[in-house]
Each structure stands twice: as C-alpha cells, then as structure tokens.
Amino acid sequence: MVSRPLPSISAKIEILEQLACVWNDAGLKYSVTNGLQGYPFDIGRDLDICFHQDHLRCALELTVDHLKSRGFTVLPYKLAWVYWVVAFRVTDEGSVDSIQVDLFDHLQWAFSWIIDGPGDSSGVTSIGPFQVDHWSPVAKRLVLNALSQNYGVFEKKPNYLETTREELDSLEANFKLLSGGDFKGLRQAIGNRDLDGIKAEIPSFRKAVMRTSLLGLRKLGRRFHSAWLKQWCVNLNPRRTTPIITINGSDVERLKAWTEDLHQYLEKHLVFTCDEIGDGPTDISSWGGWFRFVIRHCRRDRRRSALQVLQIYRNHPWRNPRVGGKPAMGFGLPKPSIVIEFDKFGEERGKEAFQDGVLMTLLDWLSGTSVRLLGKLER
Questions:
Q1: What backbone torsions phi and psi does residue 118 show, to the nearest 5 degrees?
Q2: pTM of the predicted model as reported, rounded to 2 decimal places
Q3: How far apart are CA 231 and CA 237, in angstroms?
Q4: Domain boundaries, given as residue ranges, for the chain
Q5: CA dist 150 to 141, 160, 199, Å?
Q6: Taking 80 as the threshold, does the pLDDT of residue 264 lie above it?
Q7: Spatial separation of the C-alpha atoms in residues 213 and 224, rounded to whole Å
Q8: Residue 79 is inside which H or E element, if any?
Q9: 69-80 exposure pattern, b = at least 16 Cβ within 10 A, e = fewer
C-alpha cells in the first residue's frame, strides 16, 4: 500500500486566509484570539475567533457556505454558545485537508465575561488578512488559563506566556473593568513571563473578579445563563459530538500492536484530538463491573465526546461475544458510534492499511453526521 500523504500546512493556511477575506468583505467585526502563532509559515490546530454578537450568526453561515463551495464536508457543531466548525476534504493526491474554526461572541470564567466581543476598531490590527485586537489574544491564552489555574498549559506551551507590548498595555484597563483594580504585580509578572509570580498573584485576582461579577448588573442575566449553559453542556448533560469507536477482534496481541499508535495516525490527518486507545473490560459478568462501565461512559466518555475528543476502545463490550458476561448485560450498555471488526483485516494487508481503513470509516461516519448537522442549521 502507498502511504497516504500528510496534510499540506500551506493548503490549510490558504483556506483560513480565504475565510478571513470572506469575513472582511462582509464587514464583520471580529478578532482572532488564538491560533496565529507561527503565522505565516505555520498555523494552529484550529483558530479561535470572537465576533461581535450581531455578526456571529452571519459569520457561521458565511463560513459554512464558503467551505462547502471549496469542496469540504462541513460539520457545524454547537456547544453552549460556541460554534465549532470542523471541515475536511480528501484531495486528488489522497491527503486530507482538515480545518477547524471556533466562533463565539464571548468567553467567560465563572460569572465574568473575560472576553466580551472584539475590541473597538482603534485597537484592532491586521496579521495578514486576519483582524486581531490587543486584549482578546492575551485574555484567551493567558488570563483565562491563569484564572482557571490551568498552569500545566504554560509548561506544555511556553509561548502562551509571551506577550506583545500592545497586549501588555491592554491589561491595566481590562483588569480594572474585570476586578476593579489594576493589579500591577500581576501585570509585571505577565510582562516578565514569571509563572511563579503569576501563581502568587492569581488568588487575589480571582477573588476580585468573582466579587465584581457578582455585584455588577451589566448583562447579569446573560452572564448567569451562559454560566449555567456551560455547566449543563459540559458537565451535567454532555452530548456526543465526536464518535466513540470500538475495534473488536479475537487476535488480542495483533489488535494491540496495530492500534497502539492509531491515535497518533488519526491526529496527523485530522484536527481532532484523539485519546490513547483504551481496552474495554474483559468481563462484565458482575453487575458491579457492568455498572462501573456504564457510569464511566455516562460521565467521562460522553464529556470527552462533547469536547470533540475521539475515543477508541479495543473490544468494547456492547454486543461483543468476546467479552465475558451475561448476554443481556451487553444489550444494556451504551452503544459505540462505530464498530469495526478487526478480524476482517488479514495480517497480509498490513498495519498501515488497517489504520487507513479506520480513517476512511471515520470520514464516512463524519460525512453522514454532516448531513444531519447542516439540516439542523438550515431550520
């Protein structure tokens, strides 16, 4: 088998630049908040874009229409108030062009809208065709992560601590708006890329931001509603977006060997994050084991799927005769989205052909989901 070519980063950049031109030509007000690191030679896995609230729906429709006109299969997901537009197409050379743009009109922490629309035109600059204000990028990649005490992201992505002079200048006014104080110590720590200093200053900043959000009346109802909506969609009642895949097979050793790096193969060709492959339980003969697996699915698996993470099992127990237990228990388990029978892939076909077959099966499933999501969008 000839290896499938890897996606072209230049093709991805070109498509995203064309999208920005479409938004610009329509006069939409927006700011790219994350994903332009490395541009114009590289670009992020996805782009996060904050639109003016009156322009968000128009931006969604223009984005979908443009991508469809360029031959993409488009999946316009929605989680709370955020639209995640994922699109892919298979090129004549066999590579998979895959992009994602996240569209929203605000981002919040607790009851405070840390980003509330793009900045006014006087504070907006252009990076290529993309419009970027000074506050929303530093707010998205640094302030929101610090408020959430998600410090691990700065260790994985140290460039998130880097700030421009214009971004630093935007901190004082926005800190006063969010917290009622200028927090000079925190601003200095950010300017010095001092993670320990940020950690030391954040607790008092968090308290001040929370206090200001609870006492302020501006957009009070909408802020509380979106806070509830986020909890409902992510934690209380997450709904599947990306599929849960099971690969069932009798040759357990070969199955494990051929799937151990499958998540990396899929991430090379698609924008989705993919969890490492997990083994399903080998036996659900006890009600305790059955119940634990159901609870795991209802809590972890559905939440991961709602956050657009691909999940793959080896020998998921749903209607799988290879898993011990009472047959009736298998019928009561949550159903995977895609079931792939590994035994149909003979050893002579090779590991790479198998992994490519999983990719093509996944793309077929996503194509069917696209029809359903586009139908909902047009209602």
A1: -70, 160
A2: 0.94
A3: 8
A4: 9-236, 244-378
A5: 11, 12, 10
A6: yes
A7: 10
A8: strand 73-79
A9: eeebbbbbbbbb
